[in-house]
Amino acid sequence: MHTIFSVAALTGASMLSLSFMQAHAAGLSDGSKPFDQYHWVTTHNSYEKINQNLKEMPQQLSDGVRGFMLDLYTDHKQKGFNRIIVCHKSLACYGPWGNHLKNEFIPFLKANPAEVVTLFLESYVTRDDLQQVFDSIPELADYSFDPDNFANEQWPTLDEMARSNNRLILLTDRSELEGNYAVGNKAVKVLYDQDWLVQNRWDTLGAVATSLLAFHDFSCPTRWSDVPLNTRTVARETGKRWNRLFLMNQFHTATSTTFDSGSFDNNLTYLRHRTDNCGVTPNFIGINNYQNGDTLAYTQALTQGGIYLWEGHGADRTQDTVCVIPNGTQTLLLPEMGCENDEAQSLSLSGIAKGTRITVFDSPHASTDDDYATVDVKRDIGISEHVIVHEFERTLETDDYRVNYFKYNGLNGKVSRVEIQVP
C-alpha cells in the first residue's frame, strides 16, 4: 500500500495545509537513530516573538521547533523561582525563566513523551542563581539529560532518551556553570557548550536585515578559535567519544524581517550554501522568523530524507534549489515548503526507500493529457547520498531509478504538481 502526498500549484509563498501541520506535531516516526543523526529548527532569541512570526515559545514547540536560544540574567530583587529572568541585553525582559520551564517546556515534555528539547543558554547568572531556580522546580530533574546515564561510544538514540526521560538538554556558554545541581535525591545537569558542540560565528550575515543579497555573507568561520568546525568528537573531559553536535547560526543580530528571512536567511538555496561552506551538516539551525522559508522542511529532510527539486539541469548546485519535499512528510508540520511553480528542471534523492514513486506533472490537476513523468526508485538510497535525476524529459533506467516520460509540449521548468507514493 502506498501513501500519497500531493503538492499542487506550488508557489514561493505556499503554506502547508492545517492537517499537514497538525501531523508534524505528533513527532518523528523513527526514534532508532543516535541523537546526533537528527536535525532541528532552533529559534534565535526565542522569547522575542516580534522576531519569530509573533509566536510565543509554546506555539513554536507545537510548530516543530526543538531548539531555543535564551539569554538569562539575574533579578537581584528576587529569590527562588523568580531569581533568573529571560531578557535581551537586559533592556527588554520576558519574565522569569522558571515560568518558561514550569509552564511551557515541562508541560510540552509531559504531553509529548517521545520529544527532546534543547536549550542554548547565554548565561549572565551564577551557579547559586541556577540552583535557586532548580530547587523551586524539582520536577525539572525528572526530564534533565545527563550523558552519564548512557554508554560512552555514541549518542543515545531518541528512543533511549525517551525511555529514560532524559529529554531536556541544557547547554550553557560558561564553563563555571556546568555540572550537576542536586535537587532532592535527583539532579539537573548543565553542559558546557564548547565541550559538546561546534558553532559558526553568529554575525556574518550582518546586524540588520536587508533585501539585498550582496550584503549577506554566507561564509562559515568557527565561533571558537580552539574548536574548529571539523572537530569530530566531544571534549576529552566529558568522558565520551560521541560526535559533536553542530549549531549553525543563520540570522541577523539586530533586526529581522519576514521578507529577508523567507528570501535569504531561511531560503533553502542559502541554507544549503551555508551548509556547504561549513563542511558540516547542522544538527541545529538557529534562525529568526521560523515560519518563513524552508528551514523546517530542510531539517526534516536532513533527518528522514527528502526529494530536492532544482532550478537547473542535473541538480546544478550553482543555481537555486527550488525546494525540498521531506520523506514521510505526512507526519510532520511545516508552515511552508517554498516550492515555486514552473521552475523545477531536475531533482535529487536523499534517504529515499526502494519502491518510492515520484510523479511530476505539467498540469496542476494531474491531467495525463499534458506532460508528466514518473520516477521509480529501484534501491534504498542512503541519507547521505544525493542521487540525481538530471531531467524530466527523457525516459531512461539506471541502477538507482527508472524515469518514464510522457511527452506533449515539454516538462522541464514547467512542473506544477508533484505526487509522491511511499511504499
UniProtKB/TrEMBL annotation:
Residues 1-25 form the signal peptide. It comes from the Bacteria. It catalyses: a 1,2-diacyl-sn-glycero-3-phospho-(1D-myo-inositol) = 1D-myo-inositol 1,2-cyclic phosphate + a 1,2-diacyl-sn-glycerol. The keyword Signal applies. The keyword tRNA-binding does not apply. Residues 29-174 form the Phosphatidylinositol-specific phospholipase C X domain. It holds the Pfam family PI-PLC_cat. InterPro entries: PI-PLC_domain (IPR051057), PLC-like_Pdiesterase_TIM-brl (IPR017946), PLipase_C_PInositol-sp_X_dom (IPR000909). GO terms for biological process: lipid metabolic process. This is 1-phosphatidylinositol phosphodiesterase. It comes from Pseudomonas viridiflava. The lineage of its organism: Bacteria, Pseudomonadati, Pseudomonadota, Gammaproteobacteria, Pseudomonadales.
